[in-house]
Amino acid sequence: MTTPMEGSSIQIVSFPHPTLRHKSKPVRRVDAELVQIVREMFRLMYANNGIGLAANQVDLPLRLFIVNLSAKPDEGEEFVFINPVLSKPKGNEEFEEGCLSFPELYGPVTRPKQITVQAYNLRGEEIRMNLDGMLARVIQHEYDHLDGTVFVDRMTPTARAKAQPMLDEFELGLRALRQTGAVPGDDVIASRLAQWEQRYA
């Protein structure tokens, strides 16, 4: 059995894993292990052709997420957002979204077109950006994860109903993983998340 502090063992969890509904705690310290975890998050994101990944999605209760719109390790710009705060939303725009925790599920989501994000990087430097376009959308999507919100929550009732058969399949998948012991019970997950929070939050 792996210990809860082994960052190299992280994996992307799929809906409806309980950690996806856990409200993350602010990060109070950054050490070498957390830096390694972020590197592993980038590796997992690229391996799954993703452009954003939040800590909740790798079963960690910390307020941080990563983004690279190129989805490739040698292209684009890698962003790490720690303890992000979003403000000054302007306009609205609908666009189809997907999520690495919802494999092969896509649906329309309406979000503000423009936002301001304030956060910190791994070096403790403040980041402040006024954004629009895809980067603004991805940051809002990942920020939602930190509050336990997933993109299907923001779909219209009609779009959500269309997605329901796949959501039901995800539910069955989690039950099967629990039966095999691949995903532990809620009490074990809660205890492990509390250990992470005690160390970093």
Describe this structure in words.
The two termini are 24 Å apart. A hairpin with a 7-residue loop joins strand 4 and strand 5 (106-111). The model is unreliable at 1-8 (pLDDT under 50). This protein is α+β, with helices and mostly antiparallel strands and 201 residues long. The chain has 4 helices and 7 strands. Strands 1-2-3-6-7 form a 5-stranded antiparallel beta sheet. A two-stranded antiparallel sheet has the order 4-5. Helices cover 34% and strands 22% of the residues. The chain has a single domain (7-171), classed as Peptide Deformylase (Alpha-Beta Complex), CATH 3.90.45.
CATH H level, superfamily name: Peptide deformylase
Task: Please mark out the parts with pLDDT under 50 across 5 or more consecutive residues, or reply none.
Answer: 1-8
Structural class: alpha+beta
Strand order of the largest sheet: 1-2-3-6-7
* Assigned CATH class: Alpha Beta
- Please identify, by name, the CATH architecture: Alpha-Beta Complex
The proportion of strand residues reads 15-25%
Alpha-carbon distance between the two ends: 24 Å
Assembly context of the chains: single chain
Question: Which word captures the global form?
Answer: globular
Percentage of residues in helical conformation: 25-40%
Task: Supply the key terms.
201 residues; alpha+beta; Peptide Deformylase; five-stranded antiparallel sheet; two-stranded antiparallel sheet; 4 helices; 7 strands; 22% strand; disordered N terminus
Map the helices and strands.
Elements: H1 32-47, E1 52-54, E2 64-67, E3 79-90, E4 93-98, E5 106-111, E6 114-120, E7 126-132, H2 133-146, H3 157-180, H4 186-200
Antiparallel strand pairs: 1-2, 2-3, 3-6, 4-5, 6-7
